[in-house]
Fold this protein.
Amino acid sequence: MEEYLLRQRDYLLSISRAMTARLDLPSLLQLIIESTVEMLRGEAGLIALQARDGEFHIRASYGLPARTPQLFAPLLTNIPLQHARWPVPDLYRRLRSVAASAGIHLRQVVGRPLTLDDKLIGVIYVFRTRDSAFSADDRLVLSSFADQAAIAVRNASLYQQLAEEKLRMDAIIENSADGVLILDARCRIQTINRALAEITGWVPEQARGQPCRRVIALQNAQGMNVCETGCPLQTFSSDDKLQVEGDIVRRDGHRTSVSITYSPLYDDQGTLVNIIGSVHDVTRYREAEEMKSMFISVISHELKTPVALIKGYASTLRREDAHWDPATVLESLAIIEEESDRLHRLIDNLLEASRIQAGTLKLKLDDVSIPKLAAKTVERFRVQATQHDLQLDFPPDFPPILADEERLQEVFSNLISNAIKYSPDGGTIRVGGRALHDYVELFVSDKGLGIPLDKQPSLFEPFYRVDSSLGRRTQGVGLGLFLCKAIVEGHGGQIWVESASGQGSTFHFTLPL
Ligand code: ADP
């Protein structure tokens, strides 16, 4: 008996050792069934577990032919939750039916339900092919092995749940549109996700283990940057969240404005284990903010100037104590009219720009003769451009095109007015075009200031103005070229500029035929 108990202890020990060493369920169940069969001096055995659909499936067996799992079905139904409620005659009736159909000499059987938290999860059987019956001790031993099997199942399923959970978390972090970084307590990078790799230009594998201030080097930082100041992290209190804003500049010069929120993660003992940083790209938001404030300052300036002039001239004319000669009256009224026109144009442009940004610009298409339209527009400008020589340059057979005439006139007006404005010393301004295979290409060229190459990419953005002393003195809000681009693109064409500082500029645009 003593030797029996010793052997039982050895088997149980080796099972629990195996349980801590490996977590894959099949090999553990196999170890348990083999040990149980040997311990009970049986010849065969099986462990079946209940699947989600409630059916029992054999998950490990020993000494049984592998080809016939379904033959054991009688032993895999109606299993009682409690072993005490399992009448022996019933068990033997089932055994006989299995033995007969499987053609194996199974004479003796002992079985135990496997339970976890009072729930049935499976069953374990040991069989003998000889006639000696299982003893009370055998039954007792089987109980301890059944308990081990139940714990193994629980551990393995917890492990599997954890592994699935981790996979899910990893996928969420990796695919998050926001940048995510996980730091250890010494502010070294454990993980950065794809979005942050893109923002910082660091490959995740190379970032791992780096001090986070190398990877998240913020320029113009505002707020508490954990990466710079936070480590060692006594400064965190348990429900702290720290926020910092600034720019991340990649090695290739690409700049992203970000807002980072750091949150600490503590273990049960209150020791800091990780710091999670969530990195939000606020570039668009920042640009929109800048544009809004520029918009407000530009617009208020541009609106104020004509209103002040109109008011000034009107109140001067109204003075009861003064008598104005007709020439002065006419001149003043002309200025009032001009300034009102300017206000009108500005308001129109603003409305148009907001329509374009809202995507509701509609074109009224009709046959348009571009040379005629250009000539008409040039005529209007001749009066004010006394220093400039305005020339037209179209071939006689220029084809008519389908376009919105009023809007195209706006494009010519804006380009010609710019050509005049930005060539203060006069010079030739040419307006012309030629027809190509399936589109026409038009141009407006001047011999004025020109535009430095590095400023050209921004020219067509709303409210963009090249900063120059002349630019500051000339009227404009930086909407003209934005509107031109929207109108040309609305027609399916393209617009671009060829220019260099001091060399004059040529604006080209195409319209499909
Ligand atoms: P605005 O003329 O109202 O400032 P635009 O959108 O028409 O706005 O033009 C944007 C900027 O592009 C101008 O401020 C000017 O600096 C530059 N620009 C436009 N046309 C010319 C040109 N023909 N020559 C030189 N600079 C130009």
Notes: The first strand starts at residue 44 and ends at 50. The CA atoms of residues 317 and 328 lie 9 Å apart.
